[in-house]
Design a protein that fits this description.
The chain is an alpha+beta fold. It has 4 helices and 5 strands; from the N terminus they run βααβββαβα.
């Protein structure tokens, strides 16, 4: 988005996008996890309720978001959606791309009859918390408990 005419295209992910997604994830987490992304892709192929969107700019994938319309998680009602993952290439952050991805995913979930969307965020990730708050998310009723073994 260096020049003012470039606007990202939000579209469904394809198999050819996987290397770019793995690269973005590795830049964000400082480690490669191709097996995680292969598993997510396999899930996508089995679950029509799942959305895997990418933001493409000038032919390059610069971000992604995964969401799902499901009742199978945590015995929640059918009208609940989930945001699994969002990632934006570091060079393209703070340019509105995450907001574009989020808006598109929310619209897709709304069109499926979803009335509530949940996600989990590490409470130490302040920038991510700010992003979700800016997208209208508030603290929900679920509480994550963890046991290290």
């Amino acid at each position: 988005m260096n020049d003012k005419t470039s606007v990202p295209v939000i579209r469904s992910m394809t198999h050819k996008d996987l290397p770019s997604i793995i690269e973005i994830d590795a830049k964000l987490l400082k480690r490669k996890r191709p097996e995680v992304w292969e598993a997510k892709l396999a899930q996508l192929e089995k679950r029509p309720s799942m959305y895997f969107l990418v933001a493409e700019l000038d032919g390059k994938v610069v971000g992604f978001i995964i969401g799902d319309a499901s009742a199978w998680e945590y015995r929640v009602p059918d009208n609940v959606g989930w945001i699994d993952t969002i990632g934006i290439h570091p060079e393209f952050q703070e340019k509105g791309i995450a907001k574009m991805l989020m808006t598109e995913l929310i619209n897709l979930l709304k069109n499926r009859g979803i009335t509530h969307i949940n996600t989990f965020v590490n409470w130490r990730e302040l920038e991510l918390l700010k992003f979700f708050a800016g997208s209208g998310f508030e603290r929900g009723a679920l509480l994550n408990l963890e046991l290290k073994v």
